[in-house]
Amino acid sequence: MRPVGVLVGWIVLILLANTAIVYVLDVALRGQTAGGLLLAVAVPFLIMLINRSTAAEAVSRHAALCGWVAADPAGREWPWTDLRLRGTIRVLRAWSFVSEGFPITAGELKWTGNALAGAVEGETGEGVFVIVHLPAPLPSMAMRNRFDRLGDSPLLDRPELRRALLTGEIPPWTARGRTLFTIERRRTWLRPPAIEGAVHRALRVVELLAPAGDDLDQADR
């Protein structure tokens, strides 16, 4: 089935399921059937599965249209690995592509037990990560929140960088050599705009760290 046909099919299923929810809740609240109470629980679960599936399908279509290359989560060393002192970190899926002249690796991960050591909001959760591969190394440094900065680089003293973090223009970030990465917690199913937005914000960090009068993407690669 073509992608448009798949999308239409999911929309029809969602509409039918929503109609079923209204009917089932009406029946259940009137106390007419015990089965109605069971369906009142089952149907929302079905809706959740449909929403997750449609979101995953949207991301897959977007990746294919944009020429993103799937990356093997188990086939590489991730830059946050040494942050983990306890808990778990698992990359669910990832893609490699180029944005604004920079090689990018972006995707979805989940963590438990504060395994990311403050590099993202929340001790446990799921989120979007972006890794920007830089043409020239940066000092090891990070900005986690308004009070937590790691490293002694004078770049951390830039008022525009601090302002961008405080206003939410950029997320917490970590730079190590030729790699800069961000991780943003997500609270809904991952869709293409969430990935594109995270990439834009990560590249904004790179822009704010660029030497005055220079662009990192113009440096020799």
TrEMBL record:
Residues spanning the membrane: 29-51
The keyword Transmembrane helix is annotated on this UniProt entry: yes
This protein's record includes keyword Membrane: yes
Taxonomy, superkingdom: Bacteria
UniProtKB keywords: Membrane, Transmembrane, Transmembrane helix
Name of the featured protein: Uncharacterized protein
Species of origin: Actinoplanes philippinensis
Lineage: Bacteria, Bacillati, Actinomycetota, Actinomycetes, Micromonosporales
